[in-house]
From TrEMBL:
PANTHER family found in the cross-reference section: UNCHARACTERIZED PROTEIN YJBQ-RELATED, UPF0047 PROTEIN C4A8.02C
Organism: Bariatricus massiliensis
Pfam families for this protein: YjbQ
Protein name: Secondary thiamine-phosphate synthase enzyme YjbQ
Lineage, highest ranks first: Bacteria, Bacillati, Bacillota, Clostridia, Lachnospirales
Family of the protein in this entry: Belongs to the UPF0047 family.
Entry superkingdom: Bacteria
Length: 134
């Protein structure tokens, strides 16, 4: 088994950062050819999603859509830190993703990549990668 902690610095209040290549490097370092990868964020205002990598407008539109559903400021939010919207967005995308490794590579659709989703930045974040053979 392989476990690695990564750090990522986000630059904006909300952003989606492609991290697929980081995970590919971890797979290569682990030597695992067949198995699974679990990526996990220990934060309640940041998570992961798998989505389109070809058109950057998709990321823009996703963040815009998240804001429409979960606006940053609402008079009825009660959480004192003022980031209830970020907690809701993270609950929607989730704190983790599981990927399949086959022949030493991640199985993705042609247009897919893995994104770290920041909803309460900018911040210095960490996330974990667990690779299991089998």
């Amino acid at each position: 088994m392989y476990l690695k902690e990564h750090t990522i610095s986000t630059q904006h209040a909300q952003q989606m950062s492609k991290i697929t290549n980081m995970i590919r490097e971890d797979i290569q370092e682990s030597g695992v050819k067949e198995g699974t990868v679990l990526v996990f964020s220990p934060h309640t205002t940041a998570g992961f999603t798998i989505n389109e990598n070809a058109d950057p407008d998709v990321v823009h539109d996703m963040l815009l859509g998240f804001d429409k559903v979960f606006p940053t400021e609402q008079p009825y939010y009660r959480h004192m830190e003022g980031n209830s919207h970020a907690h809701m967005k993270t609950s929607l995308v989730g704190p983790s993703q599981t990927l399949i490794i086959h022949k030493g590579e991640i199985i993705f659709g042609i247009w897919q990549d893995l994104y770290f989703c920041e909803f309460d930045g900018p911040r210095n974040r960490k996330f974990y990668v667990k690779i299991v053979e089998g």
